[in-house]
Amino acid sequence: MERNVRILGAPTDYGANRRGVDMGPSAIRYAGLAGELESAGVSPTDAGDLAVPHHATRDADAGATNAKHVKEVEEVTRSLADAVSTALAEGTTPLALGGDHSIAIGSLVGSARDADIGVIWFDAHGDFNTPSTSPSGNVHGMPLAAALGIGDFAGVEWANAAGLKEENVAIVGLRSVDDAEAEAIRDSDVTVYTMSDIDERGITDVTNDALDVATDGTDGVHISLDLDWLDPREAPGVGTPVRGGVTYREAHAAMELVARSEAMRSFELVEVNPILDEHNETATLATELAASAFGKRIL
Q: What is the dihedral sign for C-alpha 58, 142, 198, 218?
């Protein structure tokens, strides 16, 4: 049966430390997302962009006890969660386009509203900070902790994903983590595969293990793909690049395994920043990886 995909744009930059990522959804669409999805054998419908609030002037000095623009993040979270939940209820697969990674709170809350879900977090970063531990106060470094109710986020109704448990979360490709964040991850039941694990074991074994973690006793898996997961030579248009990421082919291999598992429930592409990109290269890569995740094959 052909899979129906609903594209949901979330043009935000509230959670990021650099401007421009709010143009990510437009850049990804312009790079040919709909056509790539059709080539994967799915039927895409573009629901357009969420109406997002204008944020106040940025406070460059916001410190470690702050979550910058958290009111705007909450508003977008509630809106995206409803859109994701509605898409699933209507038998379509939601594909959220960021925007910065704070949109993942909405994706997770919506996907886990009426189901038990697992998560695979393809990212250079753990996104496990809280307002108390974050060195920057940027919420794009907090969405996984928020959805799991870690630390300051315990009991925060709008941010906590009800049907998500730590033991069904796998972070793949971690290579940049703050000290307090690392301690919180070690104290959790989240499974982490660093870039060293990928180097030693290969992307296939690591991704298959991550799928086992995320599918164990769940109704489906949310895939969160931050484009800074890839090496900056492959994906230059991201706000927080970290050298030593996965290659183009490794990224496609991982997405192909996701498609083969048939476990994907919801999906998001985040942190494409066209201002920092080269000839829309990162947005184009995002469309290709989405196609692989939805089943595109060489033959």
A: negative
**Model pTM score:** 0.95
- Give every CB contact of residue 4 below 8 A, 6+ residues apart in sequence: 42, 43, 44, 45, 91, 92, 93
The DSSP-derived string for 234-290 is: T----SS--SS-B-HHHHHHHHHHHHHHT-EEEEEEE---TTT-STTHHHHHHHHHH
Instruction: Please list the active-site residues.
Output: 101, 123, 125, 127, 140, 226, 228, 271
Domains and CATH numbers, the chain: 4-293 (3.40.800.10)
Annotated binding-site positions for Mn(2+): 101, 123, 125, 127, 226, 228
Summarised one tens digit per residue, pLDDT across range 163-177 is 999 999 999 999 999
